[in-house]
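Input.
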Amino acid sequence: MENTLNQTPSANRTHIGFFGRMNAGKSSLINAFAGQQVSIVSGTAGTTTDVVHKSMEIHGIGPCVLLDTAGLDDSGELGLLRTGAARKAADRCDVAVMVFAPEEAAVPGTEKEASWISYFQKHGTPVVAVLNKADLLPAGAPDAADAGASDAADASSPADTAEAQRNALSASLGIPVLLCSAVTGQGIPELKESLIRAMANTEKKRWITGNLVKAGDSVLLVMPQDIQAPEGRLILPQVQTIRELLDRKCVVTCATTDRIDTALAAMKQPPKLIITDSQIFDLVYAKKPVESLLTSFSVLFAAYKGDIRYYVESAGAIGRLNGDSKVLIAECCTHAPLEEDIGRVKIPRLLRKRAGESLTVDLTAGADFPEDLSSYDLVIQCGACMFNRKHVMARIDKAKDAGVPMTNYGVAIAYLKGILDKVETGEA
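Output.
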């Protein structure tokens, strides 16, 4: 295991969260697992407050993010905020490690951890359970030959042994439990192997461009470089899409909005696929060759990060909005808003033009997202290039549970432009 200098975005890394009560040894276990100090370790309960993130490159797992969370039993006003942050971290975990200390595993009362495990299992998140601090427990009962050499008061009860506690905890939780020690390194290799196996059973590799291209296809990317684009750089979805197309052995041509005609004229044959910014869907649609497929970066990321079928189905709710309706726009970025910002200005303007100026539009940014969505008639999620798929799917699950339609920027704009049925989603 070692740190990586590559530039794999956090959103594309496997997220491994460590959960458990205060002083279960989560931070020490993470440090032993990572082979370096990721989290501050202290005997004082509640040392970990905000969720600690550490990007790593781990052989067998690949690029990943380790998340150290506050204790599940944290209390008080600040404690509730800390456990709330841990719950948000749970939504973006691809794998969860539930950590127990011997004093917790030896007595009944693991209902809190069991409820979190049930939450993970409900959302399809694999769980690896660990009985930590195994160095504090005797490995087994004393040999009979040695019994006479020890004072009877020093003999450990078989119920106190590491194996006995592990077996009891496993029976209580209904899942296997690993025996680990952050101090001696016991069980750390087994923890790594368990995480590798857990990841092998999760979703197959997904492509941003889905089933839309194959090796040798030509692809035209139309990429406006306006006030929204960072100076001297391309935005992340463009970079990731270009890299994937190159990996898939496609021939890639890039052009700004004012050079679409020039780019098409320079190509010997019409491109198999045109990928554009959603905001200029109608302009590109009017210029594209009949045989070329059309999509946008946002639509591709809708399928890559979320539930594209639900997004497309939910787009129809836009046609049912009126002046009394309420819409939530959810951005993953926390950038400073600029003039003509797509989430704060352009989409609300398009919605109000259709539904009425009195339409209520709320906006959340970053990890903020309402627990209760019942007051909304529609949720519109951004492309979520900064979030991993698990995080986005947790939001979609909340919307579905509340019976609230949820779509995304690109799908919503295509619907508002009247060309959603002409846009490819890339769904495999």
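The CA atoms of residues 189 and 357 lie 60 Å apart.
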